[in-house]
UniProtKB/TrEMBL annotation:
It comes from Rhodococcus navarretei. This is GyrI-like domain-containing protein. InterPro entries: GyrI-like, GyrI-like_CCH_Lin2189-like, Reg_factor_effector_dom_sf. SUPFAM superfamilies: Probable bacterial effector-binding domain. Residues 24-197 form the GyrI-like small molecule binding domain.
Amino acid sequence: MMVDFKKTLDAYSARHNTFRTLVVPPLTYLMIDGHGDPNTASEYAGAIAALYPVAYALKFASKNNLERDYVVPPLEALWWAENMTSFTTERDKSEWNWTAMIMVPDWIDRPMFEAAMATAASKSNSDASSRVRLETLDEGLCVQTLHIGSYDDEASVLAELHDRYIPSSGLTMTGKHHEIYLSDARRVEPAKLRTILRQPVAHSAESASL
């Protein structure tokens, strides 16, 4: 039976117009880093093109060798900048740093990853493919919501999350802004894009002492 992690993992559950606090377990990802506007930087497109061949090589290896099939999870990304207002009021994408990611099941081990990397490299001339790595991300306590609409319309939601909801809940931001792209932007019109917006947090010192 094929596993679809979007349906089985609570971390992929979010509701529109609702901020939800949850504990995200450690998850393992294929990752590749970069910098710049994702709409114009060739580095971002190259990173995405490097991730998917490795992700599908792992899927087929799992199915054929382990008899464990699964749906390749959605594209995700971590985003950060020296000035975080570049995501909200300033909205300067050229300042963004990012890590593009695709989650892999916990039964995928390093030898499988290395074999998938070799398979992908044999079919690609891109230098980006060699920069894909396998790493576990432990975000822990997070707040997330489902955004419906274009990526450029996220700014007001993020401002509400960063500046109102998190402080008023006795929390502080601790990790990198995390987005999970549930829609394929090549096939879905911007107004209908579905994106989970996640922010790792911790209880503030003041709230923890109460």
